[in-house]
Amino acid sequence: MKPFQGKRIVITGASRGVGFESAKLFLAAGAEVFGTGRDRDRLDRATVELAKLGRFTPFLVDFDDPTAPAAVTEVVAKTWSALDFLLNNAAVQTYKQDWYDEGLAILNEQWRCNVFAPHELIFRLVPMLERGIEPRIVNVGSGAGNRQALQTQPDMPTYRLTKYALGGMTMLWAAQLKGKVAVNALDPGWLRTDLGGPNAPGVPADGGQRMVEICSLPWTETGKFWYGNQEISF
Ligand SMILES: NC(=O)c1ccc[n+]([C@@H]2O[C@H](COP(=O)([O-])OP(=O)(O)OC[C@H]3O[C@@H](n4cnc5c(N)ncnc54)[C@H](OP(=O)(O)O)[C@@H]3O)[C@@H](O)[C@H]2O)c1
Fold first, then answer.
1. Is the pTM of the predicted complex or chain greater than 0.85?
2. Rg, Å, the chain Cα set
3. CB of 15 sitting under 6 A from ligand 1
């Protein structure tokens, strides 16, 4: 029996980077994966690779569109009767020096994909998760958005703020769903993805491995922030 045999997993942002690497590992470990992407060509290319490993269902969606989480929920509900894992991984980051360099519009843009979309997906998918087996939610945060980083590093402020908010959201949902759905946040590490850039020390596969580690923690662990299976501070 493979470690994730028969698990039903939603991964947002499965077309590249951490999401793609996580999907590869979960499919190889026996799970069925429903993965989203925003760019049709990238999602098609990822689907060719992922379908070789197991049952992968792709879904094209742009979380800048406020109707996107409802659309995802509708298709997931047609795919499965219950859900075991929701992995909120898709996010955007733009590197700027400070708030003035970023301007005002960016807050609304990044907030939609990095905060509103994961929140609404949780809100809508909880009933399906409650029918799952030891169901879990993982919100992919970042060390760039922990309290200490916010106090000392004023660059890319919007991204940091969205990830700090995601940490708060993780704690609140964990408290509400205690005993029903485990809710944790993951720092996948600084990785050489499109988002992480070429100078990062880690490779995308490291992030996939850390995703598997957080998803393998005892189910009773909830409301915490993890770097793989090591607890860290929000
Ligand atoms: N890489 C790092 O160093 C690092 C460090 C800490 C935390 N993280 C976090 O890890 C997660 C994954 O990051 P990554 O490095 O793998 O990023 P990435 O390589 O840039 O991939 C981002 C993924 O999110 C999807 N996405 C982006 N904007 C979207 C939108 N508006 N609507 C729908 N999908 C969208 C992309 O889809 P398309 O391919 O279709 O555009 C892609 O699948 C993020 O939450 C990030 O904040 C990364």
1. yes
2. 16
3. yes
